[in-house]
Amino acid sequence: MTPIPDVFRAIISHMCEGVLFLNSQHVIQICNPAAEKIRKVKAEQIIGRSIYDIHPRRAHPQISELLGNMQAGTLPSSHRIIQAQGSYFENSYTSVQDSQGRFLGTLLISRDITEQRRLSEEINQLKNVLAAKQKGAPLIFNSQTMQKILETIESIAPLESTVLITGESGTGKECIVDLIHKLSPRNKAPLIKVNCGALPVNLIESELFGHVKGAFTGAHTDNKGKFFAASGGTLFLDEIGELPLSAQVKLLRVIQDKIIQPVGGHKETHVDVRIIAATNTDLGKAVNNGSFREDFFYRLNVIAVEIPPLRERQEDIIPLAETFIKHFARKMKKPIPALSDPARDYLLSSPMPGNVRQLKHAIERAVALGCGNTIMPSDLPDDLIKKTGVKLPIYHIERSNLKEAMAGVEREFILQKLASNEGRKIPTAKALGISRKTLWEKMQRYQLNA
Q1: Which domains does the chain carry?
Q2: pTM value?
């Protein structure tokens, strides 16, 4: 080992960057204190050893190619970013030659860019959040539960880990998937959605992994499959619990290795996809009863996100309802109606077994069929009203004065009679015991005309 002049030794020792020098035989000859800290190793433990000794065998081919190009002079320098022990490092490699152009060794300088990368990702994440909000954020909520879920989404979106989203039907699992993809570095690439429950059993492999022409009857052309279509992006496997065991075995290998083989083909292809799966069934119970593979479950359940039902986050019901009212009113080119207090109470008292999806459909119906500028309980679907256990008509005196309460009851009663007489005015007036003219005036007052 060539002695290092004191001034250069002092410079190297005080550098913030980690410095390693490998001689022409790729043996480590210099390791400064910063490199010790970055690599979490003492200099005396690695000086005099080959660079290959301190790296796992799987990395040897890549290291050999890099150092070989350095030594041959075809690659004077190189840069790459690596992740190790929870931190990110920018490594620069420089070929060192003497005045005659003879290769002396390789200088490796490592810079810890963890904080820089974190700030960069945080800025990009905030940009994506703002962009998502400007486009109409897929999540509308007011509850602390959903706030925590949003924070989780923002944390896991930049990662590559597989995500399993669970929750009852209609809770908004697909919206969570959309948001994860939008906030991820893969957002420029496709988000491919697959409903596993809708795949024919005999075509599952073909749909997911593709097939070659002539692989089976009806395969008239090559088909790349969903994994290939999602390359560079995200593949969303919805209703993953509906996959048969035979398909789970094959999908397990693909998720592990990211290698697919089309049906009827012999060539294996690497695919760069992030997997997000969702289910409304209890996969733990499915594992216990033998309908779902345990190894497949653990492969999917790397990061779990559970979406609670709407009845457990009542604070979100009214914000969601008001958002849907505005959406459907604009879509139908109608004035935006207000949500009355009685209608609010019905929505809050309903168990809402269909969750957000049921609420959305209920509001769509109310906006479509409502005649006035206020949504009343009678504008809501009958099945939702019946499940509240509250009888029509209703108007809470606590929330209004006597005049408003009487008007609310009268409006509801007129709506009921109109509905029972299929909107016909003469029989409705007779049922109410008033003239047709009086009925017309009241309908105008309560804005009950279409």
Answers
A1: 6-112 (3.30.450.20), 118-308 (3.40.50.300), 311-445 (1.10.8.60)
A2: 0.58
